[in-house]
């Protein structure tokens, strides 16, 4: 049995004040004995504060990106040791916004996954196709390419042991256009199969989240699918009630 996981990706949103209110509401609503692991991923500058606010709860802290390099002369970057230092457990990697807007390619994302795992942090690795790729029947080829860069190397395969995958069709992110539970399940099953071809035990235990316009109103249906082990939540993670409904839908 895979314990579901729900991660809230705040992206570049919020203020100290809104972060405090959001965390207080989520902490109270999640309570103890949650049926899913819950992770909150605020912007870097709020990580420390959110970590203190989360004390006494089982909610984990995640970051939205990290450098693949160790500490040193890399102006503007954040290292794995800094994230560990402020109490992070997870890091979102390869989000489509990072791939599209900041030029992160499969090779760089793979380096980050490997560096993160070596540091003892857990990657939440995002994969997913663009609308045009889906429409031209390339979904599986794109997702396979994004995974194979890790599956085909010894270090990559080792890093996947501690990784959570998030399937996020790019056309569904922030658009209100959710993949149907069947569309999502098909790709999740494909991802699990692809991993099984290298490591059957890993395929069985790895958690595969769905992301892309998940809301309180569609989470139950999505999470009911066999290979969907929770969600990576953008917009709805900024709304206490909606995010809590999603957390409670993951059983
Ligand atoms: P969304 O974002 O829930 O707002 O579609 C998901 C994500 O980008 O992780």
Widest sheet, order of strands: 1-2-3-4-5-6-7-8
The H-and-E topology, N to C, reads as: EHEHEHEHHEHHHEHHEHEH
Radius of gyration: 17 Å
CATH topology: the name is: TIM Barrel
**Alpha-carbon distance between the two ends:** 11 Å
CATH class: Alpha Beta
The residue fraction in helices comes out at: 40-55%
Describe this structure in words.
With 251 residues, this protein is α/β, with parallel strands linked by helices. The chain has one domain: TIM Barrel (Alpha-Beta Barrel), CATH 3.20.20.70. Helices cover 44% and strands 14% of the residues. The chain is built from 12 helices and 8 strands. The protein has an 8-stranded parallel barrel with strand order 1-2-3-4-5-6-7-8, surrounded by 5 helices. Helix 3 links the parallel strand 3 and strand 4. It is globular. The protein starts with a strand and ends with a helix. The model has no long low-confidence stretch (mean pLDDT 97). The structure holds 2-phosphoglycolic acid. 2-phosphoglycolic acid (PGA) binds at residues 9, 168, 173-174, 211-214, 232-236.
Write a concise synopsis of the structure shown:
With 251 residues, the protein is of the alpha/beta class. It has a single domain (5-249), classed as Aldolase class I (TIM Barrel, Alpha-Beta Barrel), CATH 3.20.20.
